[in-house]
Task: inverse folding
């Protein structure tokens, strides 16, 4: 775990993995509250991390280097592992599969959304995170010959209701992502996250330009074509471009349900 000023959330998170993890490693990036003491009360190894320069991947990789178990389970302090998922985790870690597992994350704020994140994987030195923000481990698992599987293991994520704080964070992340893109233009995952940050900031013109660029550099990715179509349909309307984007997505994946639904929506409004 990476934590900072999480004394309110940390007990719920650590309670959710009680009896599952034999080793708890909590990297603290500069808490001014009782977060380190609470982690210590749960028996965690608490590692102080210098976070003067924001780099989540480096911090996570430092903690991975300290882990001794065969498997790594990653949670954030504002997440809890769903009780019914503990048995499923036990089944997976009893195997010798060289596989990273996507968990189903339920994000609770004004509304509930779902996404999938890799949170369980074998403890191997070649499996390391990439990205100063929105860090991911997926690519290194695949590059090292591992596989990725989706599961129904559930974690619940509760967003803090602080719109001003979230906006400051989004703007800071935009600048860091731009720096990463300038340093390595070949890593298009940074563009995906940049578009998402612009979207959260409601900077839809900027998000549209990024999705157009992603679609251009990933012409065989139906999802990239779909997202370009969504922005051309809903956020920076250009119906001709939207139809072309959805058609391209369907040519790459004929059974793409989302693209079919958007095409039907356009036909209904024509």
Result:
């Amino acid at each position: 775990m990476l934590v900072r000023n999480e004394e309110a959330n940390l007990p719920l998170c650590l309670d959710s993995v009680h009896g599952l993890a034999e080793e708890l490693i909590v990297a603290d990036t500069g808490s001014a509250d009782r977060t380190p003491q609470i982690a210590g009360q749960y028996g965690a190894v608490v590692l102080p991390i210098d976070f003067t320069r924001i780099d989540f991947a480096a911090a996570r990789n430092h903690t991975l280097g300290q882990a001794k178990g065969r498997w790594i389970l990653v949670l954030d302090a504002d997440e809890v592992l769903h009780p019914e998922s503990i048995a499923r985790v036990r089944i997976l870690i009893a195997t010798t599969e060289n596989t990273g597992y996507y968990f189903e994350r339920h994000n609770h704020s004004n509304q509930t959304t779902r996404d999938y994140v890799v949170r369980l994987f074998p403890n191997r030195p070649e499996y390391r995170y990439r990205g100063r923000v929105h860090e991911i481990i997926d690519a290194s698992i695949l590059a090292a010959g591992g596989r990725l599987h989706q599961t129904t293991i559930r974690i619940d994520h509760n967003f803090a209701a602080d719109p001003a704080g979230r906006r400051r964070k989004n703007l800071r992340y935009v600048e860091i992502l731009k720096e990463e893109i300038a340093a390595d233009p070949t890593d298009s995952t940074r563009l995906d996250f940049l578009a998402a940050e612009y979207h959260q900031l409601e900077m839809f013109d900027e998000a549209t330009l990024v999705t157009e660029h992603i679609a251009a550099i990933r012409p065989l990715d139906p999802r990239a074509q779909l997202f370009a179509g969504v922005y051309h349909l809903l956020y920076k309307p250009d119906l001709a471009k939207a139809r072309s984007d959805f058609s391209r997505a369907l040519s790459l994946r004929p059974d793409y349900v989302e693209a079919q639904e958007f095409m039907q929506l356009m036909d209904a409004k024509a």
